[in-house]
Amino acid sequence: MRAPSGCRARGRPSQTPRSAACVGEDDLAPVALATLEEAGVGLGKLKRVQVPTGVALITVDAHGENEIVVAPGANLELKPDDLDIDETDAVLCQLEIPLETVERASELAPDRFFLNAAPARGPFPAADVTIVNRFEKEALPERDGVVVVTLGADGAVLYEDGDEVVRVPAPHIVAVDGTGAGDAFTACFVVSTLEGRTQEEALRRASAAGAIAASRFGAQTSLPTADEVDALL
Question: What is the predicted pLDDT for the residue at 12?
C-alpha cells in the first residue's frame, strides 16, 4: 500500500513537513498513515471521509519494473476547500487527487510550487519545478521553468525553459522493485533544492534516492534516509 495521496507543504528545511491528505474511516487508514507518523510528518490537515482509503495494487516483474492499478477511493475526496496552506515557502503536489485541488494548491503556494506530474493526465497547472519520468514527459506539453525527467537506469536530466542544463548518471544498483523510486527521487530533489544545493547536486542526490528505493522491495518501506543517500554518493 502507498501513502494517502495529497499535497505536502514545506517550510524551511529545518521545519517539519506537513501533509494535506484524505483517508477513509476504515482498517486501511492506520496502515497508510503509519510510516508518515513514524517519519514525523505533520498530519494536522488530514481529512477523514466515509469512503475506502485509496490503495494501489502493484505487480513487479523480474527486472524490477512495475505495473500499478490504483483504486483512488478517499484520494478523490480531497477538495480545493480542504487546503489550508500557511506558514510555508514550498508546496509539493502530485496528480492522484482531483486536478482542481492541484490547481488550488498551485494558487495557494506562497513561494515555490513543485509538481510531480504523475500519473500523467491533464491539463494541470504550471509549476516552478515539474518532475516526470520519461514516459510521462511524452504527454507533457511545452512548459516554462524547470522540468526534471527521470530516466531509470540512465539517470536524470534537468531542463530549464526547454534547454538541457544538467544530466547525471544513475548510481549502479540491482533493481528489484521500482515502486516508490519516483516518490523518493521527487522528495529528495525538493528537499535538496530547499536546502540551497545546486541543481546538479540536487539531481545527483535525487537519483541516488531513487536508486536506493528501486533496490528494495515495497513502497513506503523502500524510501531512504538522507544518511543513506550520502553513503551512496
Answer: 44
Burial (CB count within 10 angstroms: exposed 0-12, middle 13-18, buried 19+), residue 43: middle
User: Which grid coordinates belong to 76?
Assistant: 478523490
Task: Answer yes or no: are the C-beta atoms of 23 and 46 closer than 8 Å.
Answer: yes
Q: Enter the pTM of the model.
A: 0.87
Query: Residue 19 and residue 43: Cα distance in Å, rounded?
Result: 6
Q: What is the pLDDT of residues 52-111, one digit of tens each?
A: 999 888 787 776 677 778 889 999 999 999 998 877 779 999 999 999 999 999 999 988
* DSSP secondary structure letter of residue 38: H
Considering 27, 144, 161, 183, which one is annotated as catalytic?
A: 183
Residue 1: its pLDDT value, please? 36
Q: Which residues contact 5 (CB under 8 A, 6 or more apart)?
A: 21, 54, 72, 75, 78, 94, 96, 97
Backbone angles phi, psi at 67, to 5 degrees: -125, 130
183 catalytically annotated? yes
Tell me which residue has cell 504550471: 126
Rounded alpha-carbon distances, angstroms, from residue 26 to 30, 53, 70, 72, 182? 8, 7, 17, 14, 27
Between the CA of residue 229 and those of 108, 155, 211, what are the distances in Å?
31, 15, 9
Q: What is the pLDDT of residues 191-232, one digit of tens each?
A: 999 999 999 999 999 999 999 999 998 888 889 999 999 999
The grid coordinates listed for 155 are 539517470
